[in-house]
Design brief:
This protein is about 35% helix and about 20% strand. It is α/β, with parallel strands linked by helices. Helix 1 packs across helix 4 (about 65-70). The chain starts with 5 loop residues before the first helix and ends with a strand.
């Protein structure tokens, strides 16, 4: 059975991670951290009609492919890494296409021109230089596999002035992004790759993933997660320049 209730899908992913802790869906170790994807789910349901053929570019552990399949999208996933969940999804959804990329070809996508109505990047575009690629080249390749008027949704794109990133510099063991971005830089990337920006905003002031270390009573409480969301929303509005991430939605143009 497929449905497009993001709340139920989040609960399914949390239950899956709880039952299979070795699967490394670390973002779903708590309800507080899982809700970091609420805006992404809303964007996709708003801009991409159900039944569209979509590409989960850089699918990683497969959590967003799971969402897409549960919502009735015809889904392909592309990744340079191998994870268990996408392989399990292939057995459950025979139409699901799971494609492994080649590390010596970090930009090329093994799909024909104009294959998809939508492509998504969830914490991926900022890492292409780490694997020998380049953001503009990747966007041009994404444009190639998008149909005319197709939608590109980029989520968890690091903000150059992120407060969390600034704090991470004080903690040597804390992971942080090498490459971070400004609004003008994003606009320029889209201009050069011939994408029309439909929506762009900063979001996410408070940390999320740290909640996975708390006891289940706290980390999965709807009251606590709801309160964290409200506080995050208020602080994101008050200190918007220092939010952790950008999101943007762009459309393929012909000129």
């Amino acid at each position: 059975m497929r449905h497009s209730d993001p709340g139920k899908i989040v609960q399914e992913l949390i239950e899956y991670q709880t039952e299979n802790p070795s699967q490394l869906l670390f973002q779903f170790q708590s309800l507080v951290s899982a809700l970091q994807y609420s805006k992404l789910y809303e964007l996709f349901l708003e801009f991409v009609p159900e039944g569209s053929r979509v590409l989960d570019w850089g699918a990683g552990n497969g959590h967003f492919s799971y969402f897409l399949l549960r919502c009735g999208y015809r889904t392909s996933a592309f990744s340079l890494e191998d994870h268990v969940l996408p392989r399990l999804l292939k057995k459950q959804y025979p139409e699901f296409e799971y494609v492994r990329g080649q590390e010596d070809q970090p930009v090329r996508l093994p799909f024909p021109d104009q294959s998809f109505e939508a492509v998504t990047s969830v914490g991926v575009l900022e890492h292409v230089r780490d694997s020998g690629g380049e953001e503009l080249a990747s966007l041009q390749e994404i444009k190639r596999v998008l149909k005319s008027g197709g939608i590109f949704i980029c989520y968890h794109f690091p903000n150059r002035y992120s407060g969390i990133e600034a704090l991470a510099r004080l903690l040597p063991a804390k992971p942080r992004h090498r490459y971070k971005y400004t609004k003008s830089g994003i606009i320029e990337l889209c201009r050069k790759s011939r994408f029309e920006i439909l929506k762009i905003k900063r979001y996410g002031f408070l940390p999320r993933n740290v909640w996975g270390k708390f006891p289940g009573t706290f980390k999965n409480s709807e009251i606590i997660s709801g309160s964290w969301n409200v506080l995050d929303g208020v602080l994101s509005w008050l200190f918007n320049s220092f939010c952790q991430n950008w999101l943007f939605v762009a459309r393929r143009t012909e000129s």
